[in-house]
Amino acid sequence: xxxxxxxxxxxxxxxxxxxxxxxxxxxxxxxxxxxxxxxxxxxxxxxxxxxxxxxxxxxxxxxxxxxxxxxxxxxxxxxxxxxxxxxxxxxxxxxxxxxxxxxxxxxxxxxxxxxxxxxxxxxxxxxxxxxxxxxxxxxxxxxxxxxxxxxxxxxxxxxxxxxxxxxxxxxxxxxxxxxxxxxxxxxxxxxxxxxxxxxxxxxxxxxxxxxxxxxxxxxxxxxxxxxxxxxxxxxxxxxxxxxxxxxxxxxxxxxxx
Length: 257
Fold this sequence. Notes:
Elements: E1 6-17, E2 20-31, E3 35-39, H1 46-53, E4 63-71, E5 74-75, H2 83-89, E6 90-93, H3 104-114, H4 121-131, H5 135-138, H6 151-163, E7 169-173, H7 181-194, E8 199-203, H8 207-213, E9 216-222, E10 228-235, H9 236-241, H10 246-252
Parallel strand pairs: 3-8, 3-9, 6-7, 7-8
Antiparallel strand pairs: 1-2, 1-4, 4-5, 9-10
Helix pairs in contact: 3-4, 3-6, 4-6, 6-7
């Protein structure tokens, strides 16, 4: 188990969609300002687990959880916790870039405007675009449609949109799967830069990407009843070079999954 100060901590987390149990007894500690990768075969619950961190599964009819997801020591599923506030503090970047059909500026300004930021909006937008390594590419087209950007630029715009509301954690669900190798490298470089100030959790099918960018890696598998379970979690070099679980070794070497 990763032994560092916890940003997020899962204790015996179970997730159901209706009568189907998607996750079983997941316990793990996500440290502050590190990149944690979640890997495993298709269908093992990686994205479902990611959505537990900021209560995105609440939006799915019939979804329910048991156990705890502690964020800085507080259970995000407690009855007095506002899930909207959780999602501002724990932002999400999705698999496919999803810019709003608005200008570049208005995409990044959307969250701050909802939060009542008005007097320094241009400053907030510029800072977020700088942090997303996109400012130099879009500074002369801020008021043009975001959908005119390339796929890689659109994904960095979506990252800037998350950064604009000042989150503490950034969740990324296969953020490079729709991108070419050059755009993927830019996103990976950006992740390493952002990890100096943010906690990042990334789901990826690309094991080479997990090995390149992450500090810690969680390996998930599917049990016979299709429930996702955590089979191994630790520092990335150890998981990839000296795995403790035979299933991890088989998956990483391509003998399974």
